Amino acid sequence: MSGLLTLDLGNSRCKLRVWQANSIDWNCSARADFEGAQRLPERIAGWLRSVAPVDRTILSSVAGHELEDELMNVLREASTIPPQTPDHGLEILCRVPDRVGRDRLFAARGALDVVGEAAIVVDAGTAVTVDAVLFQGKDGPHVGSFLGGSIAPGPALWARALAEGAARLPLVAPRPDVAALGRDTEEAILGGIGVGFRGAVRELCEAIAREADLGPAPIVITGGARDYLLRGEPRLSPRRLVPVEDLVHRGLLAAGARST
């Protein structure tokens, strides 16, 4: 049975998912994550030959135009319908709407599809984005309104910045659920990153909720560094925490279904 391919091309990673529809939801039947841009179209083409055929591809990309064009050529050969970026269905209430990353918009769209109400959307990866989105309903011209948010470094980026910016600080591999009280330099860096990252996201969530008048809106959390926010004490927030894997892909599926 042919499937639907969703592709999330970010700054440092390309994530692909193949989905099969059932009577209730979409099931992911194949997945791949590729790091870096080197030989990326070739690697994706090889992976696509190893999975079940797809008849449609929808994507979100924040990569450069040259790489995006190369990938589009690969995707055209892999699916019967030309690949497309669907309308996310959001009203963008930012000063320069065209400069808002598609990954942020589709993550917001996915969050609305999951919770069906206003939400704070946290995507924790190389960078962490904390965004505010309002729910307008699924029957109008817009499903919701994207209000904007904040962008900050993710844990791995914090670690590299410390190692590169301070001559005597080592590069560490950050991990979640660490103590703030480090007993040596490495532990001190790990605590500063792990606990500091949680604290930064906690403060951003509450400040954005307050400034956007979101009331008790839940926090929808996704991204490769989400464990930093979901593990350990104290809890990230008294708000309802909604972890969602592949939130950008969920937004692509929701937007694609609406646009068909």
Structural features, described:
- Helices cover 36% and strands 27% of the residues.
- The mean pLDDT is 93.
- The protein has seven helices and ten strands.
- The protein has two domains: 3-85, ATPase, nucleotide binding domain (Nucleotidyltransferase, domain 5, 2-Layer Sandwich); 90-251, Nucleotidyltransferase, domain 5.
- The strands form two sheets. A six-stranded mixed β-sheet has the order 5-8-7-6-9-10, with helices on both faces. A four-stranded mixed β-sheet has the order 3-2-1-4, with helices on both faces.
- It has helices at 40-50, 65-78, 102-115, 155-165, 185-211, 227-230, 247-259, and strands spanning 3-9, 13-21, 26-35, 54-61, 90-92, 119-124, 127-135, 144-153, 219-222, 241-243.
- By secondary structure, the chain is of the alpha/beta class.
